[in-house]
Amino acid sequence: MRNCTEAFAPGRYARPMPTLRLVLLLLLALTALPGHAQSPIYHCIAADGHPVFTDQPCSSLQATAAPATAASASAPSLRPPAVTCAADVDALRGAVIDAFANADANRLAGLILWAGYGEHAAVADIRALAGLMRRPLVGIDLPDDGSASDGTAALVVRTVPPDGSDDPGETRFAIERHAGCLWLRQE
């Protein structure tokens, strides 16, 4: 029988066994390898003109690659991130102007109070916003004090009407206060 002090004598088990050393080196090597790169996201325009974001090349969807804008082709913008919570009508008006200046339907959609919308209604409204962004902005009308005579506030976006259209080029949004912010709601 072996003596307990002999089994735990200093230096006897101080060196790891060769197998353990090999396993540790293998684990270290695996953690040093880079992970798989994320698949690229392609921005395409479908045959019906709607934007499509996919992990497949545009040609595989019979779509064309969306043209790169100056902002996406250059270095990241140095502009501060857009604030989606407008504290007053002037800030809300400025955010709408910013959305049009950058042709950013997502920015305009971020100003809308979507509570109570169904999925299909929201999709239809987002498509309408994308169409609105393709038209040049003429002006934005607000009541002088930010409220209409009936107690509801409204913001009217005036754009150039599409060619050959009876559309007056006006889109009306109700303005609602919710959680301390002013939001747009399509009428």
Q: What is the number of helical segments per DSSP (H or I, 4+ residues)?
A: 6
Our measurement of the CA-to-CA distance between the termini, rounded to an integer number of angstroms, reads: 92 Å
Helical residue percent band: 25-40%
Structural classification: alpha+beta
Structure characterization notes:
The chain has 187 residues and is α+β, with helices and mostly antiparallel strands. Helices cover 30% and strands 20% of the residues. The protein contains six helices and seven strands, in the order H-H-E-E-E-H-H-H-H-E-E-E-E. The chain has helices at residues 4-7, 18-32, 70-73, 89-101, 105-109, 119-133, and strands spanning 42-45, 51-54, 64-65, 137-141, 153-159, 170-178, 181-186. The strands form two sheets. It has a four-stranded antiparallel β-sheet with strand order 4-5-6-7, covered by helices on one side. A hairpin with a 5-residue loop joins strand 1 (42-45) and strand 2 (51-54). The longest helix is centred in the N-terminal third of the chain and has 15 residues, at 18-32. The chain is elongated and about 80 Å long. Mean pLDDT is 73; it is low at 69-78 and 146-151.
